[in-house]
Amino acid sequence: MVVERADAARNRQAVLEAAGRLFDDAAEIGAVSMDEVAKAAGVGKGTLFRRFGDRTNLIRTVYDARLTDLRAAIADGPPPLGPGADPRARIPALLEAVVDFKLDNRKLAMSLEQDQRDGAATLYTSPSYVETHRLLTSLLTEVIGADEAAWTAYALLAATRIDLVDHLVTAEGMTRDDLRRKVRALVARVLSPGDG
Predict the structure, then answer these.
(1) Which letter does DSSP use for residue 123 in this model?
(2) Among the residues of 114-145, which ranges form H helices?
(3) How many whole angstroms separate alpha carbon 83 and alpha carbon 135?
(4) Of 37, 41, 97, 169, which one has the fewest beta carbons inside 10 Å?
(5) What is the CATH T-level fold of the domain 6-63, as seen in this structure?
(6) How many Å apart are CA 14 and CA 43, to the nearest integer?
(7) pLDDT for residue 196
(8) d(Cα 93, Cα 180) in Å, to the nearest integer?
(9) 59 CB-contact burial (10 Å; exposed 0-12 / middle 13-18 / buried 19+)
(10) How many other CB atoms are found less than 10 A from the CB of residue 62?
(11) How far apart are CA 15 and CA 23, in angstroms?
(12) Quick check: 66 and 108 in contact, CB under 8 A?
């Protein structure tokens, strides 16, 4: 395992903090230049490009850094979000947490969930999506069996897409609590046995 030098770690943290502030404050993330990020972080532009490659990778790195606490809560936190909860309680807790995270990081999520070209990861191949889909599929398998679990996980995760969530909040006037209730109701319908 390669240990990051202390100055490199400081520079990385400075870049993530500066980029996060600039992305959060910008009307459009695409308008934030790598020059602006380098200047705000106090690093050279070359250092920024060597470390992060391009703006899309920098956006994804900021997003992933912000995911750290949520990932820890899912992996080791208390139920219902963490391990040990009944899947019927953990599934809606997971989806609600995803909605909350996306609302809290709306601009970053919007940028990353748009179709990307040139070989960049799409929403469905991004590590965070794959990780969430895998866990949701596992939990669903315990409740509805393996045959439909993966498909159902995709369908449930579609309800957390940021374009939908943003539309419901901005155009439909839903609150965070409304969205959380809708997610719980959707999961309850999906997991309830049918009438035949």
Answers:
(1) G
(2) 127-144
(3) 11
(4) 169
(5) Tetracycline Repressor; domain 2 (1.10.357)
(6) 8
(7) 44
(8) 9
(9) buried
(10) 27
(11) 12
(12) yes
Tokens coding 31: 């308008």
Tell me how far apart the alpha carbons of residues 126 and 90 are, in angstroms, rounded to a whole number: 22
Residue the block writes with tokens 């609590």:
177
SS3 content of the chain, % helix, strand, coil (to 5): 75, 0, 25
Half-sphere exposure of 15 (CA within 13 A, CB side): 31
Backbone phi, psi, residue 52, to 5°:
-115, -10
Can you tell me the distance from the alpha carbon of 58 to that of 65, in angstroms, rounded to the nearest whole number?
10
Both tokens of 89, joined, read: 């309680």
Structure confidence by residue, pLDDT tens digits, 63-106 = 999 999 999 999 999 999 999 999 999 999 999 999 999 999 99
* pLDDT of 3: 58
Q: Which of 87, 186, 68, 71 minimizes the C-alpha distance to 131?
A: 71
Question: And the tokens for 45?
Answer: 């532009």
Find the largest Cα–Cα distance for the chain: 64
Residue 99 near residue 179 (C-beta atoms within 8 A): yes
In whole angstroms, give the CA distance from residue 29 to residue 189: 37
